[in-house]
Automatic annotation (TrEMBL):
It comes from freshwater metagenome. Residues 3-252 form the Carbohydrate kinase FGGY N-terminal domain. This is glycerol kinase. One of its GO terms (cellular component) is cytosol. It catalyses: glycerol + ATP = sn-glycerol 3-phosphate + ADP + H(+).
């Protein structure tokens, strides 16, 4: 058993990666799933489709690595956070499409909460009141799905984030699947007390969620169950790590010390700052969240800034506008012009997250002239990714009081060298990318490996981190200030539209 498996279930795709003891990838397979958009602001996934994709990618990765499931010492799970699944334990079928983290259908419901209740929820959970989080999605399912109501009445309903759905299926499903989650995913529901690390009766009451449907909360690194020998791995393999995707990336980037930070570029963009064992209450629109918890060691906390649309803005250029045929074309197209010709693009397709938290905001493109081309728009889309990141990191510095001199980055867009150079230029700091850029999957593998002794401790993991590329700022302070001032004006247009 010389390998660790990592199931990385994301917003647009699912993949299984297999790592050796040096953290190197020896096999992987990835498949996309559908994005279901029933109404404006609604985003859903078919959880049954995600489970089918999971089985396929596990088989594909094992085949590529030319190993058996029994060659794995353990597997870890990392997942798109906040996305909410309800299923029936007697049939094993979802009771409704999963409601995705980007979905804003519960905004009106949340607006009915009094300031006093909102303040109480934020203090206990560390989260602002927003449809982004799972609690209001669960409430919506209870209020609007006859199937969910019926299953709750009969005692067969189970709710969870995607990690819980996958763990339940991998560990046997209707034949006795285990229903639990880890502290990082639970901390994204508005239902967990950040201090006790357990479901909070007062929070459950605000959203009308029965405790009986929820998973047991455990640490991010321990043996939760073994895989069903009749399942896709064909063997009883310990499932020993669970981390929400951004927390997994922190572990994959070995950000184990207070003050260390990373930014992950995926469908959205997420920056985390390790605050150690201290819960730091943000004054600048950031989230207080659990960073990770390894076994019975104390939980480590983090400040987080979330941007809803980064990589999905590039998907929009491809799928809705048709100005590129694949994401890789964006760099060449954007590089064909030297600037955006004054164009700014704020992709607030599902509102604005940190540090604004305006669910009613909508996307805008400003500064258009007849001279503007698709190349300028492509470049503005890349700049939008970088400006949104600066918004978050400026808030992080303000909250922590720690000046930032470099930022570790990972995720798909880090392959775009132009975008990373823009990021360095817009922020005025060094940007550094690790040798293994898909650190989300690696972090889940690390958590699982630590639980079964595959790796001894975090010091061993730190030695594996290696830099592959560094970008340094080339712009002047004046140019950075001027460009950022234009971005802030574009943000004003977005908010005024609302």
């Amino acid at each position: 058993m010389a390998y660790i498996g990592s199931l990385d279930q994301g917003t647009s795709s699912t993949r299984f990666m297999i790592f050796d003891g040096d953290g190197k990838v020896v096999g992987q397979h990835q498949l996309e799933h559908r994005q279901i958009l029933p109404h404006a602001g609604w985003v859903e996934h078919d959880a049954a489709e995600i489970w089918d994709r999971t089985k396929e990618v596990i088989a594909g990765a094992l085949k590529q690595a030319d190993i058996l499931g029994s060659d794995l010492a353990a597997i870890g799970i990392t997942n798109q956070r906040e996305t909410t699944v309800a299923w029936d334990v007697t049939t094993g079928r979802p009771l409704h499409n999963a409601i995705v983290w980007q979905d804003t259908r519960t905004a009106e419901y949340l607006s009915t909460f009094s300031p006093e209740i909102s303040k109480a929820i934020t203090h206990k959970s560390g989260l602002p009141i927003a449809p982004y989080f799972a609690g209001s999605k669960m409430h919506w399912l209870i209020e609007n799905s006859a199937e969910v109501k019926s299953a709750i009445a009969s005692g067969t309903a189970r709710f969870g984030t995607v990690d819980s759905w996958l763990l339940w299926n991998l560990s046997g499903g209707v034949q006795g699947g285990v229903h639990c989650t880890d502290v990082t995913n639970a901390s994204r529901t508005l239902l967990m007390n950040l201090e006790t690390l357990q479901w909070d009766d007062e929070l459950l009451g605000y959203f009308g969620i029965p405790r009986t449907v929820l998973p047991e909360i455990k640490s991010s690194s321990e043996i939760y169950a073994t895989t069903d020998p009749h399942g896709p791995l064909g063997s009883a393999v310990p499932i020993a790590g669970i981390l929400g995707d951004q927390h997994a990336a922190m572990v994959g980037q070995v950000c184990f010390e207070r003050g260390e930070s990373k930014t992950t570029y995926g469908t959205g963009n997420f920056a985390l700052l390790n605050t150690g064992t201290e819960i730091v209450r943000s004054k600048n629109g950031l989230l207080s969240t659990v960073c990770y918890k390894f076994g019975d060691k104390p939980a480590m906390y983090a400040l987080e800034g979330s941007v809803a649309v980064t990589g999905s803005a590039i998907q929009w250029l491809r799928d809705q506008l048709g100005i590129i045929s694949n994401a890789a074309e964006t760099e060449a197209l954007a590089s064909s012009v030297t600037d955006t010709a004054g164009v700014y693009f704020v992709p607030a397709f599902s509102g604005l997250f940190a540090p604004y938290w305006r669910t009613d905001a909508r996307g805008v493109i400003v500064g258009l002239t007849r001279a503007a081309t698709k190349a300028h728009l492509a470049r503005a889309a890349l700049e939008a990714i970088c400006y949104q990141t600066r918004d978050v990191m400026d808030a992080m510095v303000a909250d922590s009081g720690v000046p930032m001199t470099e930022m570790r980055v990972d995720g798909g867009i880090t392959a775009n060298s132009l975008c990373m150079q823009m990021q360095a230029d817009i922020m005025g700091i060094d940007i550094t990318r690790p040798l293994i850029t898909e650190t989300t999957a690696l972090g889940a593998a690390y958590a699982a490996g630590l639980a079964v002794g595959f790796w001894k401790n975090t010091d061993e993991l730190k030695k594996q981190w290696k830099q592959s590329r560094r970008w340094s700022a080339t712009t002047s302070v004046e140019d950075r200030a001027s460009g950022y001032a234009g971005w802030k004006k574009a943000i004003e247009r977005t908010l005024n539209w609302a």
